[in-house]
Amino acid sequence: MRPIDDRECARVFLDALAEGTALDLRGSGSKAAAGRPILAQASVSTRGMRGVTLYEPTEMVMSARAGTLLTQIEQDLANRRQMLAFEPVDLANVCGGDAKETTIGSVFATNASGARRILAGAARDHLLGLNGVNGRGEIFKAGGRVMKNVTGVDLCRGLSGSWGTLALITQVTFKVMPVPAETCSLVLLGLADEFAVQALSASLGTPYEVSGAAHVQGSLVKRLWHEGLREQGEAITAIRLENFPKSIAYRKERLKEALKVYGEVYELEHDNSLAFWGEIGQLSPLQDSTAPLWRISTKPTLGAKLVAALGTYMQCHAYYDWGGGLIWVEVPATSDAGAADIRRVVAMHGGHATLIRAPAEVRGAVDVFQPLEPGVEAITRRLKAAFDPHGLLNPGRMYAQF
Amino acid sequence: MSVVLPEPDQRIVRRRDAIVADLRKLVGPGVIISDADGRRAFETDALTAYRRMPLAVALPTSTEEVSRLLAYCHRHGIKVVARGAGTSLSGGALPAEDALVIGVSRMNRVLEIDYHSRVARLEVGITNLAISEAVKAGGFFYAPDPSSQLACTLAGNIGMNSGGAHCLRYGVTTNNVLGVKMVLMDGEVVEIGGAHLDAPGYDLLGLVIGSEGQFGIVTEATVRILRAAEGARPMLMGFNSPEAAGKCVAAIIGAGIIPVAIEYMDKPAIHVCEAFAKAGYPMDVEALLIIEVEGSEEEIAYLLEVITSLAEPFNPTSMRVSRSAEESAAIWKGRKSAFGAIGRVADYLCMDGTIPLGKLGQVLVSIGQIGDGYGLKVANIFHAGDGNLHPLILYNANDPDEAERAEQAGADILELCVKVGGCLTGEHGVGIEKRDLMRVQYTESDLLQQMRVKTVFDPAWLLNPHKVFPLDGREAAYEALPDAAE
Known about the structure:
The structure holds two protein chains of two kinds. Chain A is an alpha+beta fold. Chain A is built from 15 helices and 17 strands. Chain A has helices at 6-19, 70-79, 104-109, 117-120, 123-126, 155-159, 193-204, 218-221, 227-230, 245-259, 270-281, 303-311, 339-349, 360-365, 374-387, and strands spanning 23-26, 42-45, 52-56, 61-65, 82-83, 127-134, 139-143, 167-175, 177-178, 182-189, 212-216, 236-243, 266-268, 293-297, 317-321, 326-330, 352-357. In chain A, helix 12 packs antiparallel against helix 13 (339-349). Chain A is globular. Chain A starts with 5 loop residues before the first helix and ends in a 15-residue tail after the last helix. Chain B is of the alpha+beta class. Chain B has 18 helices and 18 strands. Chain B has helices spanning 10-14, 16-26, 36-40, 63-76, 128-135, 154-160, 167-170, 204-208, 242-254, 267-277, 297-311, 325-336, 338-345, 360-373, 400-419, 438-441, 444-457, 475-479, and strands at residues 32-33, 56-58, 79-83, 99-103, 110-114, 119-123, 140-141, 177-183, 189-193, 217-224, 226-227, 232-239, 261-266, 287-294, 318-321, 347-350, 377-383, 388-395. In chain B, the strands form four sheets. A seven-stranded antiparallel beta sheet of chain B has the order 15-12-14-13-17-18-16, with helices on both faces. In chain B, a hairpin with a 4-residue loop joins strand 17 (377-383) and strand 18. The longest helix of chain B has 20 residues, at 400-419. In chain B, 58% of the residues are buried.
């Protein structure tokens, strides 16, 4: 079903409630193969609700109906030299979906934040307002179109990253930012993970507003599309600067100086830097594979230790983003996609893990999202009930029990 | 005053002595304050027009004590008002005669600083400025900087999702807190988030921050700390009209330059602040912008040059770049002490609406008219980059009629903010002050959804009662959630 506005969504939900049919909520379904398989009889798409409804470049704000394609939004913004500063990373690329079809609603529903999250914040930090329909078929709005708003409970944050299990988001209003005039990246080659994370921490501890801090293990460098980088064949540690040209010229020299204790520092100038971070944004080294893929979030300085500990249980290919705090790990295919060992190692180090890619039967059998502590789980269950008491929306998508 | 506070529950008030005796057994010596003089120190916050003597006050020293106190209050149906430093401008920490005030000001330790992961873990009774002071040695700072940062606590900042002059660049509290330890009303202690940049599951942290003490009592938090810029410098720009200043801000942002702060003051505000801080503000202008940029010497010089040339088409009547650290400090002192400075010349109500920047000129004209209509002067201070407007309505608190008119003028101004596409509060919170205006911004259905979330965290509605949501219509939130009232 493709409702065309809030009211029609509400009607569809009320009908489904009356008939007792659960619903699979989606944009274009580009991430349908991520998360737990949904146990629903019918699907509702936001693709009937499209179009940018407000764009004020000088107020750094845009509103769009949820089914608007991300590509269109990015094009409209680029025309005014603006962008989504959180640099949405698209899971569709690694779970068999079509990233060209990704909708803006799904970006916020999955809180999909990319490399620039360390400087500019996550998707949830950029969401200013939304309209939605909850699992009772009630239409509501939250937030607004202004940058600062503490009027009442912050439902925008509450719905970010809820994967369509609380409400269907029908329109979003978000903050946009100017495109930096110049960019470049500094690169170190062949560093062991532990040293690489140290180099990233050192960079992020400078006043130079590092906007990307990633480390790709050698085995994944070999899968990069960029020929020059791929041919390096060894681990790449990359640090991105973005600013006006004069600033870049100054900052890169200072940063090179700070990084030289870690090895020879190379430079990716504008185009190559854009190409590299473009690949990171599309998760390029993880695309052409069907091996199970995990996304692990931890304290940055623990990232390398965590991956080393995982390595004692299984052969894994990892790359680190967010200065070491976000780790994408590809592991060998097993009946549980490595879940038991990964959960244990993550519990020892702190943080949480999400299974991003695995066959549907595996995703149906293991916890895809991090199991919650009992106190937090109780709140989570009640929150679900507060929005969707009858379990109408995306049942089972995040947690098997509700 | 016009905000109605319900009659206290006499069953609780009558049992005060017995309750106080019970509470004393739960916590260490000196934690419970029950004498009238001691309680009076907590009878109001920075919205001083409203005062209520609390049932008792607890100043616990640990999460365990907070947990025991809440569990007791939960069992006995006693309401609880959480308090940081009591600097709320919206009455967020206003007590009630039948409620226990739990203040976290004694829990103010720095627990851990990790420069490599760029996080700090703190007890939330620490003041906002003390966080930055604690990490200064490493060259870092904590970004949100409300004007009351010398006094206000991280606890209050989390409760109200506080902002500040520099949040145009660095975001508000919710963008800078990664995890909290929180005690729920029944005494259960939960950890939400941590030292990582995103939390698993639903964004409970996002719901808790800004929940105005209605979801639980946060006792510890992990915050992001940022490396400070090499340098910072403000410049002053004076204009003949608010419209010109507003258009200048739009031009700067439209050109892709995001200064760390763009502050706006109108003529009345300039005069009072200048008299107080001797910052060298131009006195003959209608509108003043303080624009601050950061970076190395060369970067600062370049940015200010670009900003200057972007401003030229709007005919600034004066432009001055700070030439020294002392001058910069004076410029900011004038702005940050604006509320205090205005408080020296008159009583005032500080409004906190947010508007789309493009409406600035129109809104300021209307605010002037609203003030005239009630026979009151209004001074305006504005975080121009992010649209957060602070009209200060000057009045005489000893004149009940004038106080009443000031409140009405404030309500009219906030309704105006909503009408032009903004909101009731940008950083001060709803508290009791804007409670009865919530329907101006939200429909019943919007409010009901918010109240249901409140019920998720506090099923019996014991935490910070009488705030945020209009008093009528709350029943729907209980009825809608049969499961929650376990």
